Amino acid sequence: MSTNDVILEVKDLRTYFFNRRGVTKAVDGVSFTLRQGETLGIVGESGCGKTMTALSLLGLIPKPAARIVSGEIILDGEDLVQKSSQEMRAIRGRKISMILQDPQTSLNPVFSIGNQVVEALGVSIKESRRNMFNRAVEALRSVRVAAPESRMHDYPHQMSGGMKQRVIGAIAMASSPKVIIADEPTTALDVTIQLQYLKLLKDIQAETGLAIIFITHDFGIVARMCDRVAVMYAGRIVESADVRTLFNSPTHPYTQALIASVPQMDRTDRLFSIDGQPPALWDLPEGCHFADRCAHARPRCHRDYPDVLQAGEEHSVACWMLHESWSQMEQEVST
Asked: Model's pTM, two decimal places?
């Protein structure tokens, strides 16, 4: 794909929390691009900054404690960081939207499904009530909800978990946004329904050219859904590559450890686990944030944070091991 296909570009995004503990660097210099019709996976342990990155893109960070202190979010040629709250209300849903991970808490139990879909449409579309109702029915039909006309009058407790997740998807896609952020949308679903939902998202993407940011900790979903992957740790992207490259040639020790932790059917030995815990984001160590848990850490890793290097075409890594291997190669070439 050419650079003309890029619909979203995030440049050095930093979202910090300011509280009694000091400064919590929830998102600390994140950069990536997203192309039309592409799915970008963002993976990492809980607390690494995945969801806060998504909320930053939508302008939904918890204020006043949280602030975007620097960076750019260029969506369709506009910098969302510079938009006011009122301007972002017009953009959310119409250009960028989000599928939340828990439909049980995302849907209001006292309003019908129809009311909630129509309300979401009304934020960006001003039409008659009848037209809005028809649009809502079509939104439910687009996510394969059976008998959508009658389902419009149902309440969330009358639906299964998988059906409620489809309704959440319908709300997110009702206004035909260009970018969808799916924040672990299959967490509450069983394996069979999960597979159906993922196939549904792929089908809708193929039909509409929708760009998707898929936030997950499940590498099985990454392999099935994503074109490219960004691995996050302690608020930063430590490795980014296309899916095939990431699985075949993981370069950062954290990426290698995550992939090694995935259960495999042909393995009967003890599962691999990563020692230790991620650092507190309000008390980050000097140097590489993964150094204390890394088996390959050198003294320099504890002292300085590595620059991002290109390990290949669209494959970037922030690790001193890559720096050292490149330096060694340069020395061998020069001699």
From this structure: 0.89
**Location of structure tokens 């409620």:** 164
Residue 176 belongs to domain spanning: 3-334
Sign of the CA dihedral running 87, 69, 3, 38: negative
Tokens in use for 271?
């599962």
Give the number of domains in the chain.
1
- For residue 335, pLDDT over 60 is answered with no
Per-residue pLDDT at 3: 53
Cβ–Cβ < 8 Å for 161, 196? no
Q: How far apart are CA 231 and CA 215, in angstroms?
A: 10
pLDDT in tens, 32-44: 999 999 999 999 9
Q: Assess contact for 47 and 278: CB atoms under 8 A.
A: yes
Distance CA(110)–CA(105), nearest Å, equals: 12
* Gap between the Cα atoms of 335 and 331, Å rounded: 6
Compute, in degrees rounded to 10, the torsion defined by CA atoms 89, 68, 235, 52: -20
* Concatenated DSSP letters of 266-300: T--SPPP---S-PPPTTSPPSS-TTGGG-TT--GG
CATH number at residue 91: 3.40.50.300
CB contact at 8 A, 234 and 285: no
pLDDT digits (tens, 9 = 90+) for 39-91: 999 999 988 999 999 999 999 999 899 999 999 999 999 999 999 999 998 89
> How many angstroms separate the Cα of 312 from the Cα of each of 12, 226, 316, 317, 322?
21, 19, 7, 9, 11
